[in-house]
Amino acid sequence: MMLMVHLSSNAQVKRPQIKIGIEAGPGLTHLRGNDYIEANYMNTIGYAAGLSLQIRAPKSIFSFKSNIFYERKGAMSDDLFFVNSSGNVTGVSHNKITLTYITIPAMLRINTNTKLSFFINVGGFVGFLLKEEDIIGAKDTVPEIKINNTANDNKLDGGFCVGAGFTIPLLDKFTASLEIRDNIGVYDINNTPRTKGGTVQTNSLNFLVGFSYLLERKYKRR
User: Fold this and answer.
1) Rounded to a whole number, what is the distance in angstroms from the first to the last CA of the chain?
2) Percent of the chain, pLDDT > 90?
3) How many C-beta atoms lie closer than 10 Å to residue 153's C-beta?
């Protein structure tokens, strides 16, 4: 009997901690990769929201972290000019490229073993394009124009992600977190030929707030 209790206790000690939760927040996003985009397009506001999963090895500072995000990326430009019949510029519209993805990161997390636990995340992500829309802003009597440009883009995005933040316990099994995470796209997302070459790559710096729930209690030896 004592042997069975001892083996059962050891099995519980070695059981990993599994946390599930939600994370969401705004992001600063832009496009890069060729001279035209970098000269004419600026940062714009995006966001990411979805589910989180963390699996922490027993008695370790290392864990696996992942998400399933609904994420908005893109960029903003003022490069479209309205011209009257005489050829004179009458105004500049605010235009946007919006890219909507399902994004799945896979990262190694390194935690500190403290109540207020600091962490860093390092890994990669893959994104599945849902929609790309070009928005030409309204100006005077000209209404806003939306163009679905999804067919001209690759359906996949991918790259590296790094982040840092901290977690703090709330109730018995609940934890809150704050994180700054940079998603650095390395894949050319656009299929349209470019006369001056280059690529079109995404980048988003997200500010994430999260809440997680511990599925298993941490075993305490008596």
Assistant:
1) 17
2) 60
3) 19
